[in-house]
């Protein structure tokens, strides 16, 4: 009977291991410059080729570009640097800037790995930080399109990155996030909580103050038509796409009108269409 009980326990343990396998060991960080964090099981997946554009192709974000680039250089050199929140208009190059800055820094021979963390995986961030803390490499932890809803508790996990709790944020990790919202939550939800709470100031302080924990706030605003056309011309010159100024202007303006928007993303989508029509690879 005792033998059967032990055998049963062993089968149960094996079944549980199959359902929730143990975390995989840290990868060889020398194999790639970029990684993506996954859970169940926890592991870092190397990215052999990062989807990004050259820093020189980003138009209308000169101040944000220079500030973020210098901050990233400082960190890669082992000097003090701030966590950064890139917020503002959709499609204006926030995530593109982070990836382009990383590429520029490593092209200068500075040691820096980028690790992408999905918003829904924020509850696992403490485990990720412990993994990165044990490495001698320096890491840019990147979370794209970060925001929180009214009843979302993931923001509490983010504090482990920004404040680090009793251990503090690992010295070899810096955190960059992009968001369409400066305070990481919708304005109507802020007002709703403020209006319905017994103590309005305390009702939203915890969530709103989260963005205050970023040392750098870099704002991105909608581009005007001249910037939009300049983005497209810069792309065409870079990729060798031949088109006259008159045709480019007419087509690009028509393209933005059909999209009902004007942004860096819309400019890239037009260039993608133009490249396809003219037989040019991007």
How is this fold's topology laid out?
Elements: H1 2-19, E1 34-38, E2 43-47, H2 62-76, E3 84-88, H3 94-107, E4 113-116, H4 125-133, E5 139-143, H5 154-162, E6 173-179, H6 187-196, H7 200-212, E7 216-220, H8 225-239, H9 245-259, H10 264-278
Parallel strand pairs: 1-4, 3-6, 3-7, 4-5, 5-6
Antiparallel strand pairs: 1-2
Helix pairs in contact: 2-3, 6-7, 8-9, 8-10
Overall geometric form? globular
Number of helices: 10
| Low-pLDDT stretches | none
Structural class: alpha/beta
CATH homologous superfamily classification of the largest domain: P-loop containing nucleotide triphosphate hydrolases
Terminal residue distance: 69 Å
What top-tier CATH class of the largest domain fits best?
Alpha Beta
- Overall structural domain count: 2
Number of strands: 7
Radius of gyration: 23 Å
Helix content: 40-55%
Spatial strand arrangement across the major sheet: 2-1-4-5-6-3-7
Beta-strand fraction estimate: 5-15%
Reading the helices and strands in chain order gives HEEHEHEHEHEHHEHHH
How would you characterize this protein structure?
47% of the residues lie in helices and 13% in strands. With 282 residues, the chain is an alpha/beta fold. Strands 2-1-4-5-6-3-7 form a seven-stranded mixed beta sheet. It has two domains: 29-220, P-loop containing nucleotide triphosphate hydrolases (Rossmann fold), CATH 3.40.50; 225-278.
